[in-house]
Amino acid sequence: MPLQLRPALPSDTEACGVITEHAFSTNVLINHISGGTTTSVDAKQFNIHFWTQVIASSFQDANCHLDIVEDISLSPPIVVGLAKWVFVPENSPLPGLVPLEMELSKEVMQNMTDPELGVTFFGDQHARHEKYMGSKSHCYLALIATRPDYRGFGAGRMLMESGVQKVDEEGYKAYLEASPEGKPLFEKFGFRVEQVAEYLDGRYLECSMIRDTKKTE
C-alpha cells in the first residue's frame, strides 16, 4: 500500500479531526469520558468537532509541527494518519493534549458523560508532564492517530520516524503519554515508561514515557 508523509496544511484540518475521532473510538477511557460508547450521532459529531478544534490550533502555534500520512493509491489521496509534535522552549508553559488556549470549555464539559473523570484525567496528564519535564526544553508528542482500517500498514512508523528525526536534530528529550495500544510502537523508537497511572478501576492504563536526547552525526 503506497503511503506518503508530508507536513499538514490547514485544508487537512477536517480530515484530521475525523481520523482522530475514529482512532480514539477504541480508547476505553476517552470513550467513557466523551460518550463515545453511546450510539448518539450528536455525541459523535461533537467529538469530531472537538478534535477538529485541537487540530486547528496546531496551525496557530509556531512551536507545533503536524505531519500527516496519505494513501496515494487513491485519487485524490486520503489522510490516514497524523502526528502533532510540540517543541517546548525552556521555561515555557507546558502544552497538553488539549491546547492551553482551549482549556476545558463549558461546551466541552456539558458534552462529557463523565466530566469529573475528564477534569481529573487531563489534570493528571499535566501534573505528570510537569513532574518529568518541568521547565526543561523538550519535545512533546501531543497527539498521534491512525485510521483504524489502516493500522498495521506502517503509517504510525512513518510518523514516528519523521518525528524523532526532528527531535534528534534539535537535540531535545521527548515526552509523551501513551495508551496500552501505543506503548509498543513508542518503545521501538527509544521511549521508556516512567510511570503508569490507572483509571476506571484498572481497566485503563496511561503510560508516561520519555526518550533521552540522541546525538546525531
UniProtKB/TrEMBL annotation:
Gene3D superfamilies according to UniProt: 3.40.630.30
PANTHER family xrefs: GNAT FAMILY ACETYLTRANSFERASE (PTHR42791), N-ACETYLTRANSFERASE DOMAIN-CONTAINING PROTEIN (PTHR42791:SF1)
Matches recorded under CDD domains: NAT_SF
Gene Ontology MF annotations: acyltransferase activity, transferring groups other than amino-acyl groups
Origin superkingdom: Eukaryota
Annotated ranges, domain N-acetyltransferase: 66-214
Organism name: Triangularia setosa
Protein name (Swiss-Prot/TrEMBL): N-acetyltransferase domain-containing protein
